[in-house]
From TrEMBL:
<keyword id="KW-0378">Hydrolase</keyword>
<feature type="domain" description="CN hydrolase">
    <location>
        <begin position="36"/>
        <end position="307"/>
    </location>
</feature>
<comment type="similarity">
    <text>Belongs to the carbon-nitrogen hydrolase superfamily. BTD/VNN family.</text>
</comment>
<feature type="active site" description="Nucleophile">
    <location>
        <position position="212"/>
    </location>
</feature>
<dbReference type="GO" id="GO:0017159">
    <property type="term" value="F:pantetheine hydrolase activity"/>
</dbReference>
<feature type="signal peptide">
    <location>
        <begin position="1"/>
        <end position="22"/>
    </location>
</feature>
<dbReference type="GO" id="GO:0015939">
    <property type="term" value="P:pantothenate metabolic process"/>
</dbReference>
<feature type="active site" description="Proton donor">
    <location>
        <position position="179"/>
    </location>
</feature>
<dbReference type="InterPro" id="IPR043957">
    <property type="entry name" value="Vanin_C"/>
</dbReference>
<dbReference type="InterPro" id="IPR003010">
    <property type="entry name" value="C-N_Hydrolase"/>
</dbReference>
<protein>
    <recommendedName>
        <fullName>CN hydrolase domain-containing protein</fullName>
    </recommendedName>
</protein>
<keyword id="KW-0325">Glycoprotein</keyword>
<feature type="active site" description="Proton acceptor">
    <location>
        <position position="80"/>
    </location>
</feature>
<dbReference type="InterPro" id="IPR036526">
    <property type="entry name" value="C-N_Hydrolase_sf"/>
</dbReference>
<dbReference type="InterPro" id="IPR040154">
    <property type="entry name" value="Biotinidase/VNN"/>
</dbReference>
<dbReference type="Pfam" id="PF19018">
    <property type="entry name" value="Vanin_C"/>
</dbReference>
<dbReference type="Pfam" id="PF00795">
    <property type="entry name" value="CN_hydrolase"/>
</dbReference>
């Protein structure tokens, strides 16, 4: 036998192994849960009352977990605050908390529930994972005692953390994550001293996890993807939708596309708080998603995803977000710009006065270029091109660069930037780009009725966000949302730690 012939089976096997790895998929599920909330009180309830409320929510989650497992899901994500809600003071949440150990202790609460003291919630979640052979992701509260030897120990002698937990198919605790970027109002919880980059390996890829507000910051979200090289991010959230740029499905889908990773997003459902919008998002766009502001019903979503998206033949290339925009001269367009507020952020806007045209709008170091053609322009609808380059936020200040083709609520230009949910105008084409000073840019396209546009736009390697064949529905916004993490200001509530 010739040497080359001897090597042939090994080569064939290696190629087959690589092909199997590249085509490896798994079935993921997320559940958008209508949380059963406790009565509003400043006084702590008894531990038994707290557990009774949590069991009511876990009864609902159990149904979703079982259904997901029956449909072949390997992993299910449930929402932030999904087991007890969010209406708490530091004292009133205490009966709902459990001591959650480091996963290094190699613990299966289902078979050894009392090893670390009373842990009925962890026991039940562990058993749900074990009995249904499915990874279960949930959000609960952790408590850690401390004393005067710790100079940062709170006056009540304990730390309280907003915490994600993951149990594997045997019910073993494999991940614990303490939320690093607390949203305003989460005064019942403490900030962890450092951001935790929590990962774990599965037969279907490497996973990372963070919670809600974390997605807007560098740590731990970007660290998990860029440095830890996770394939999929687990994302329990209690996200309040904020138009025009920060509805849950809009931004979470854009984040997955911009940073090129799978994102399993499970939102709580509460229309009075504008909480809805969950999905299974990929580097290529949403595999499936759900947005429902009309009912109070939960929803289970499932989809088959690539376990190793970086090895997929459809994995999108890296984008040079400023390449096109810095290579062209400013479009002459209309010179009359005006200022308008998107919430408290002052944008520079220019009205799109014609059915088609080329426009450039600049603010700070950012110039936004737009080429567009409307297929039907409703007379009572106004669209603008907007640019924003600056710090967003009042207490926590973080740097945004945004280029946006945006519908205004009315023909009164002073309303531009205020929320809009519906539109009538469709576009034959649009091409949006900007001179971004960051590689972290998230492409958003949102249609009338707060709907996504999967497969209807693309991002070219030179940074242009382009419609493919026009918009199939009227457009609310097409946006490039950039984050300059290095220009964020120090986090005031965390400075005191």
């Amino acid at each position: 036998m010739l040497p080359s012939q001897a090597l042939l089976p090994a080569v064939v096997f290696a190629l087959a192994a690589l092909q199997a790895l590249a085509s490896d998929t798994f079935t993921a599920a997320v559940y958008e849960h209508t949380v059963i909330l406790p009565d509003l009180t400043n006084e702590p309830v008894s531990p038994s009352e707290a557990l009774a409320l949590m069991n009511k929510n876990m009864d609902v989650l159990e149904g979703a977990i079982k259904e997901a497992a029956q449909q072949g899901a390997h992993i299910i994500v449930t929402p932030e605050d999904g087991i007890y809600g969010w209406r708490f003071t530091r004292e009133s949440i205490y009966p709902y908390l459990e001591d959650i150990p480091d996963p290094a202790v190699n613990w299966i609460p289902c078979t050894d529930p009392s090893r670390f003291g009373p842990a009925p919630v962890q026991e039940r979640l562990s058993c749900l994972a074990r009995n249904n052979s499915i990874y279960v992701v949930a959000n609960i509260g952790d408590k850690k005692p401390c004393d005067s030897r710790d100079p940062n120990c709170p006056g009540d002698g304990r730390y309280q953390y907003n915490t994600d937990v993951v149990f594997d198919t045997q019910g073993k605790l494999v991940a614990r994550y303490h939320k690093y970027n607390l949203f305003r109002g989460e005064t019942q919880f403490n900030y962890p001293k450092e951001a935790e980059a929590v990962t774990f390996e599965t037969p279907f890829g490497k996973f990372g996890i963070f919670t809600c507000f974390d997605i807007l910051f560098y740590e731990p979200a970007v660290v998990l993807v860029d440095k830890m090289q996770v394939d999929t991010v687990l994302f329990p959230t209690a996200w309040m939708n904020v138009l025009p740029f920060l509805t849950a499905i809009e931004f979470h889908s854009a984040w997955a596309m911009g940073i090129r990773v799978n994102l399993l997003s499970a939102n709580t459902h509460n229309t009075s708080k504008a909480m809805t919008g969950s999905g299974l998002f990929t580097p290529e766009g949403p595999a499936t998603y759900h947005y429902d502001s009309a009912t109070e019903e939960g929803r289970l979503l499932l989809a088959e995803l690539s376990a190793h998206p970086r090895l997929s033949p459809t994995y999108p290339p890296a984008i040079n977000w400023s390449l096109y925009a810095t290579s062209i001269r400013k479009f002459p367009g209309e010179s009359n710009t005006f200022s308008g507020a998107v919430r408290r952020d002052i944008f520079t806007f220019s009205e799109l006065r014609h059915k088609d045209g080329n426009y450039t709008v600049c603010q700070g170091d950012l110039c936004c270029h737009l080429v567009y053609q409307m297929s039907n322009k409703s007379e009572d609808e106004v669209y603008v091109l907007g640019a924003f380059d600056g710090l967003h936020g009042s207490v926590i200040k973080y740097h945004w660069q945004i280029c946006s083709l945006l519908k205004c609520p009315s023909t009164d230009l002073s309303t531009c930037g205020q929320p809009v949910e519906t539109a009538q105008t469709r576009f034959e084409m649009f091409s949006l780009s900007g001179t971004f000073g960051t590689s972290y840019v998230f492409p958003e396209v949102l249609y009338s009725g707060v709907q996504l546009a999967p497969g209807e736009f693309k991002v070219l390697r030179d940074g242009r966000l382009k419609s493919m064949n026009g918009t199939s529905k009227p457009l609310i916004t097409a946006t490039l949302f950039g984050r300059l993490y290095e220009k964020d200001q120090p986090h005031p509530p965390r400075i005191s730690l």
